[in-house]
Design brief:
Structural class: mainly alpha
Number of strands: 0
CATH architecture: Up-down Bundle
Number of helices: 7
Length: 122
């Protein structure tokens, strides 16, 4: 999968999440918003991959994780996220929710505030 594909998937998933949020389907909105974040961060990881470079096995395996914090560290953007969280109260609040998103969130019944927090910065 290419970086542009991940970017497009992020846009699609956040659009779907917004639709669910407007419909009052908060659990689905939260889940899809988390997928959007995952795709967006993975696009950042893909940007670091050089053409014709054979990837390090551990790094390649780590890129298939779903944890937003682990992926942000792999992408090299975690320090930026922490800085923005210190500078912006609303970002810090939203990141507190987003960082706890798990792929298994599809089985959760999340509330409206969690869905709104995941979608707010997109």
């Amino acid at each position: 999968m290419q970086r542009k594909d991940l970017q497009e998937l992020a846009r699609i998933r956040i659009r779907e999440a917004r639709t669910l949020l407007r419909s009052g389907e908060y659990a689905g909105a939260y889940y899809l918003a988390g997928l959007a974040v995952e795709c967006a961060i993975k696009a950042c990881v893909a940007k670091q991959t050089k053409k014709h470079e054979f990837p390090d096995k551990a790094r390649a395996n780590d890129a298939f994780d779903h944890d937003p914090v682990k992926l942000a560290k792999l992408a090299g953007i975690y320090a930026d996220i922490l800085r923005d969280a210190r500078l912006h109260v609303s970002f810090a609040k939203n990141w507190t929710i987003v960082k706890d998103w798990k792929i298994d969130s599809r089985y959760d019944n999340r509330a409206r505030p969690d869905a709104e927090a995941c979608i707010a910065r997109s």
